[in-house]
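User: I'm curious whether this sequence folds into something compact or stays loose and floppy. Could you predict its structure so I can see for myself?
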Amino acid sequence: MALHQKKIYTLDDIYALPDGQRAELIDGRMYMMAPPTTSHQRISYAIARKISDHIDKTKDSCEVFLAPFAVFLNQDEKNYVEPDISVICDKSKLDEKGCHGAPDWIIEVTSPSNPQNDYGVKLFKYRTAGVREYWIVNPQKKSVMVYDLEKEEKSNQYNFEDSVPVCICEDLHIRVSDLSINA
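Assistant: Here's the prediction. I'll summarize afterward.
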């Protein structure tokens, strides 16, 4: 949920947060983050593991990172996000602080308290920052919304039973219902 504010926040404000407090920064607005639920973590980890297994098998150059992982989207002081899953194929964007620039693929697992950020604010930000593919996994609706931002095609919605094709990796499909999730 966005804080009511007139102030423009920067990375300094993110780094000044008390230990354990997480927030994202989009165009100078700070969005506080609640701790993820157990089912949220199970889903994130299972999807990331599936992607990592595929990368290992194909010897792809991409890397998978789970939140909390810093993504400095526009390489400025007003944009900082921690996507649930970030897939980065250009290793020159990586350093010890995180990813500087847009990841190739971002996956967000919605939280019951604040799904509108993933469907609105973040979708717009990821599209304009140059993210190639964006997935929104909604455990409550058991759906996966896929945005091929590279081709700017219409989004596709799938359910957990569907074999969801990965836009940036033609030989990878993910069926969420097949993953080891004890939710």
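Summary: The helical segments are 11-15, 38-58, 115-129. The mean pLDDT is 92.
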